[in-house]
Every structure is written in C-alpha cells, then in structure tokens.
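FAQ: What does the model actually see?

It sees only this:
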Amino acid sequence: MLIQPVDYFLLVWFALAVASTLYVAWDQYANNPEPVVMKWGFILVTLYLGPFGLLIYVLADKEPRPGTHEEFVKPLWKQGIGSTIHCVAGDATGIIIAAVIVALLGLPMWLDLIVEYIAGFAVGLFIFQALFMKNMMGGTYWENVRKSFLPEFISMNFMMAGMAPIMSFLMMGRDMRAMEPTELLFWGVMSLGVMAGFALAYPSNVWMVARGLKHGLMTDRGDSDEAKHARENRSEPAVPAHEHKQNQQHAAMEAPRSPRRGTAPHHDGRGSGHDMVPDAPVPQLAAVGGVSLMLLLFGMVAPANWVNMTLSARDVGGAIMPPGMIMDRDTPAEAMLDMAAIHPRYITATYGLDTRGDRALEPRIEDGVKVFDIETKVVRWTILPGITVDAYTFNGQLPGPRIQTREGDRVRINVKNSLPESTSVHWHGLVLPNEMDGPAEITQTADSSRRDLRLQIYCRAVGFIFLSLARPCRPAAGSGPLWRADDRSGAS
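And it is asked to produce this:
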C-alpha cells in the first residue's frame, strides 16, 4: 500500500531495478562470454542494487566489442568487482531468504541477525563457491569447500558488517513497516543493506584476488564460432593441428600453474578447471580476517545500544511512530504500540477546512423509539491551515455529531465499530446499566470491529451528555458526540 512518500520512491526504484535486471540477463546470455555462475551473479546483484548494479556491469564486465572481453576485464579493480559480485550474489541471497523466514516466524531482531549470517555464509560457501565454481576450481566438492572457507569467511564478515546496522536501525526506526516482508519498505531496506555490504566487502575482495585467494572475472567462450571470431579479432594466426599440440605441450612445461595476479583467467568452458596459487602471508591473512571479524561483531552488536533488539516483526511490525517520538533500547513493544501514530491504511476519509463537525444527527423512528446510528472510524481532518490530524471519530466528525432528545424519549443507539481495534462507549452524565456503559473490561465487554453495540435508553436526564471512546489509549483529537436532552417543554 502506498501510504508514505518513500513508498512512491521505492515503487519507481524497483521498477528501475527490474528493468536493469532484465537488460543484464538478456545481455549476459546474448553477448557476454563468461561462465554461467558469473552471469547469474550479475543478474542477482543487479536485482538487489538496481541501476547501480547495471552501472557496475557496464563499467566492469560488459564486453565493449566482440572478442575484447579478456583484455577489458584484466585490471585488478575489475577483477575485484567480479569477486565481490560472486560474494554478494550468494551471501545476500541467503541473508534475504533468512530475513523473510525469520520475520514470518516472529523471532527477535538479535536472533534474526545471527540466523541471517549463518544462512548467508552457508549459501555463499556451499552453493555459490564450492558447487557453482567447481568446474573452474577443479578438485572435489569438499576440497573446494576447504579452499573457499577462509575467503568466504572474510567476504561474508565484511558483507554482514555493512548490512546489519542498516537493517537494525531502519527496521527498528520510526517506520517499522520495514520489518514486514509484505511491505515495499522491507525490500528497500534489504536493497540499501546490500549496497552497504557490497561497498564494505569490495576492498577485501580486491586484495584476495591479488593474492590468489579468490577468482575474479573470467571469460568463457567454449568452442563456439564466437570463440573463433574472438581469436581472429585478436589477430591470432591459424596454427596447424600438429604444431598446436606441440605448442600446448611446450606451454604446459613453461607456464606457471596460475595466471599473473590481478589478470583475468580464461576458462575454456569444458570443466578443465583453473587452479589458484595463494601467496598471502599468514600475518596478512590474520590481520584481514581479524579486522573482518571485529567489524562484523561491531555491526551486529552496536545497534543494541540504541534500539531494542529483543523485539520482532510480530511485536511491533507495521507500527509508524509520530515525528519526534523518542525510543531507546529499553522501550517495550507495548509502549511503542501505544505511542504509535494511526496507521494511514486505516483512514477511511479525508476532510478539509470547509468541513465542520457537531452536525445534528437525525434519528429514524421505529415503533416510537428514536434510533440513532453511530459509527466509530478513522479520518484525516484539516483543523487549521497546514495542520492535519488523524483522528478516531464518531461518524467521521470532529467534534462528533450532535444528538438531541427530550425528556421521556425512548432512545436506541446503534454503535458500529470500524476502528482497527476494539472499543467501548462511555456516557458522561448518564446513569446506565454496566452492560451499556464503558470502560471496557471493567463494566463492559470491548467490541471488536466485527461486533456492533446496541444501547436501549429511557431518557430521564435533562442537560448535556458527552460520549467518548473508553477502550483505546489514543486521543481522538477532538470531542465525541454531544447529547442534548431537553425537558418536555423543549428547554435544556
């Protein structure tokens, strides 16, 4: 539901994200010569990053002209982009899936972050690294798990260190619709978190590519006509078959096992594998791993100093706090819900300055009984120029409608509750049986939105009587109906 200005921005943003993703998907499979795992990496990351993902793809990976991909992706900064893309595609996918499941289960925020980290690490390591990269890495699946563990650990730590504070502060901020997977704001927070995680993980991925710990961007042309065309564009002379075999044997004896650090490896697409020879000194590995772990712990723990991490989407999800409302790490869910502003989705009507309340409510007569129909509902009312309030009202009026009777009248009042919560009606100055008078849960059962209330009254009082909602703890931003009871002569 589009109820806040940010919702309209997010609607446009996600439309651009979908368009960007469709273009990247089409171009990857139609034009770009790289392994399938990297194609899907760019597709997923563009879905998460929107136009920024498209920008990264065009600047770092999209082949500018046929046959130039190998040279185009050689710079180390582009290789770092490829490594980060692969990291974020797996880690962010696991994190987002876990975030949706945890929100639906109603787990507290602190446990949410832990589950998301485990899920992101598992998807990144066991699926995107060890499984999807198996042909390029060579060896068995579990050998690849062992080789990928430390690089994935470092990447995931930096990734989550960027995402965790974004999710904590924005989901537990003023607009807690961000905790609900059914809201656009939830997905907007996820997208912003992935951006932060990408930015923080990128430097470490550049370093790991340079040190031979991770793969960067690769070219996969296979044995297609496109591969032949690429060789022709690079002015490679045709070599007879017997000379080609001799050259391969000679190259195998003289070439190192891995390409020069910071360059783009060429993958032949036939599962031959590409071995890496890590050369990172142990002190460097310890320093980078230690810093990544420190930032991870800071990103996950620090928000607890400002927001209540024990709450869940089931506790406060969907609540929108009024501007300037102060919440801290000790604010309980009950207090947040009591202080929360009226949710805009419950507003049934909007009125300007030209609309007035305190309008006379005309009864209908049924068997000599004056019957008045009253409905409690939420409206948005402009009470002064530039000042608009959301109010719980009777019959959508501020002040409420005016009821006028005479002494001796038999009166029936039907109250229909259209509020988003239960309520009861309290009559100031009128003596009634408890079952017809509030407050709720003391003298009267609170009425839900699916149950109406009927009051049968013999009017003996003379004077003015006020009605008020006795159940909710929310101000009506105005008074309830005024009941004017005149004597038999018509004097009040």
